[in-house]
Amino acid sequence: MKKFLSLLIITAISTGLWAQTKPATGTTAADSLMNAMNKSETKNEPVIATFKSTRLILGSTTETVKKKNLNFLVIHRFGDFAGSQGGGKTFFGLDNSSDIYIGFEYGISNNLDVEFGRSKFAQQIDLGLKYAVLHQTSDNSSPVAITLLGKAGVKAYTDDVAFQTFGDRFAYVGQAIIARKFSSAFSLQISPTFVRHNSVFPYVAGNEKDMFALGVAGRLKVTKRLGIVVDYAHPFSSFRSNATGADAFYDPLGVGLEIETGGHVFTIVFSNAKAITESNYLSNTQSDWGKGQFRLGFTISRMFSFSPKEKKNDKY
Amino acid sequence: MKYIGIILLAWLSIQNQAGQDLYACKNVKIDLFSSAPIEDIKASSTSGTSVYNATTGDIAFSVPISSFQFRKSRMQEHFNENYMESDKYPRASFKGKVQEHVDVTKNGTYPVTVTGNLDVHGVTQPRTVHGTLTIANGTISMASEFMVKCVDHKIDIPRLVFRNIAESIKMNVSATYTAASKPNPNNKLP
Which of A183, A276, B68, B176 is in Cβ range 3.0-4.6 Å of A101 for a Cys bridge? Predict the structure, then answer.
């Protein structure tokens, strides 16, 4: 009986409440219906635009070129800004070019692209594949994005005693790039890398053919279209860390500004690395920031779309 | 006791349904279009949702910004990342009231005026939008075309690229509704 009474009371109260809020019930019901319909899909959205371009300064980012898009890259490194090779007499290095890279990257699918590039440094020609294995998601079920990069390079023309057979001219890079977009302004990535030279590079006794390296790079947006970028790499090589004096090696470090203008991404950088492609700058950076052996450089990335064209003003 | 519970539940659900004439659409088609000197910008989404209360005239729309599909993937990325900031403002919505009373039992095409608030990019603007309501044998469909000015919703267009982007965007919205007789999931009876 008590239960029955309490039920009766609850009923009475709920009726009362319902009667009082009657005009609002319509919107409430509509609102709850609206919320129910909208709930389902906002969960597993992939996080986009972790980086604006496929390159930061030195290394590649987790971004791949999307299907039927072609990314055209021009990357330039000038000569030493200061030090014995720089200063006023070379107009702070602008008279010289330590490396020039022309690259094409074409999207086979939204997660896979093929890359081709030619460097002035060692006249190396690179061919690579880049595959986005995992995308970061907005609900953090996947907290990071992972992209794999494989590259083979050949120094086809350098006349060097190091190369006894044509096979000696090949170098390979395997890289796992792990990135997280912490906020719309800040993204960070680390890239464990394996580098293999069939013939040691540079050709010095004691140098290793195989080595590991770790890259760390990040971007902090200042405005929506302007960001500060930093890119650093450390090769794990006892030969390199033991070399001293004039033969010493230094970890490549680049700092720069990234500017986006609709179709282009420009990056203006200072970097001590002379070379642009991974197998070269990780193995062969012997210039020191402290001695003024850093250089001005830039990257221009231009995206072309080859998806079928729509006629102007059709339908509308 | 069981009986009382069942009767109570049944009665409550009837109470809640009384006076409701709710219609819902889960695949509202929304197109955006702008003509600019260099190239037209066009995108569409079919993931919009809408609820229409035929009794009170209340109408609501909502669409996830990231559901808009562009032909150029880079354009889509810029739309989300630079212009709409879809990570901060994931949805655009409209909530308003149909000014005319439309009898949904009578077939026909009715021009309607909807007054309400349009929320795009986190900025809410009062708007009056014209459209048509078509009723054909119990099926309600709605179509509207209106303009959205980027500046009204604080969508910045940088001076460097403004020639590529128009300052106002034409929106086309169309929805076909089905009756949603049980609006409250708690009221579902076995």
Answer: A276
pLDDT tens digits, residue range B135-150?
998 889 999 999 999 9
Q: Is residue A10 part of a domain?
A: no
- The reply to whether A116 falls in a domain is yes
Residue B2 contacts A, CB cutoff 8 Å: no
Coil, strand or helix at A263:
coil
- A298-313: buried (b, 16+ CB within 10 Å) or exposed (e) per residue? ebebebebeeeeeeee
Of A26, A47, A308, the CB nearest to B20: A26
pLDDT tens column, A82-108: 998 899 999 999 999 999 999 999 999
**In contact, A77 and A268? CB cutoff 8 Å:** no
The total number of structural domains that make up chain A = 1
B86/chain A closest Cα distance in angstroms: 10
Return the DSSP state at A65: P
Lowest mean pLDDT: which of A34-43, A46-55, A200-209?
A: A34-43
User: What is Dmax (Cα atoms) for chain A?
Assistant: 103
Domains delineated in chain B: 21-181 (2.40.128.110)
**ipTM of the shown complex:** 0.76
Between positions 140 and 179 of A, the ones with CB within 8 A of B are none
Question: What distance lies between CA A144 and its chain's CA centroid?
Answer: 13
Q: State how far the Cα of A78 lies from the Cα of A76, in Å rounded to an integer.
A: 7
* pLDDT tens profile A185-240: 999 999 999 999 999 989 888 999 999 999 999 999 999 889 999 999 999 999 99
- CATH number for the domain spanning A73: value is 2.40.160.40
